[in-house]
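Sample entry was shown:

___
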Amino acid sequence: MLHMRADATVDEIMTELEDNFGNIASNDTLLSRFLSAEQETGESVTQWGLRLEGMLLQVARKTKIDDEERRSMLKKRFWRGLKSEELRNATRVHLENNVTYEELRNKVREEEFEVKLLKDKDNRHKIGKVSQLAVETDACQSNELLQQLMKKIESLDRKLEDLKKEGHTGRQIGNDRAVNTTGEYRQRGFQRGGYRRRPNYYQNNRNNDHTANSDKLMTNQPASKEHLN
């Protein structure tokens, strides 16, 4: 590029740059690449159009193509290479009405915008449904947990009542045992006391013997007097 004239035109400079740094693929390769190009995932309509224009420009620099044919090729490839079938169906009528490439591109952009709005609306609606479902699920889970908790509380209450009943029964049994034991002790004490209060047979026998002797003595005294007389 150092040998270029100072007054070189833009086309001359672009040609020189293309010769030094441009694509060195053959015309057939460039044309085949252009005709098989498609919109990539995540690539907007505008980005797709600009990329396709650059590919056709490379073809036009190595092949003599008039302006009308170039625009026709660009329009057809642009529409056919759209990734979204929904966009193709929505803009087919514009392609068949023989509009220019720029008009077709703008129509496709409009449809792309409308489709995006509808998708965003659907997504928000789905998110709302998912959120509502999540809330309902949480509510159901909360109700289930509450029911389980109530059941556990009722079970604990029943166990507590059973323990209270067992404790009352145990105390009653203990009291009954204590009463029975006290009664037994009292009965034993009464029996022992009765034993202490038994009559003194030995003393009674002595008293009886003494009384009998006295009676005998009294009986014998008159007889003695008679004998003396």
Observations:
- Residues 36 and 99 are 22 Å apart (CA to CA).
- Residues 94-196 form one domain.
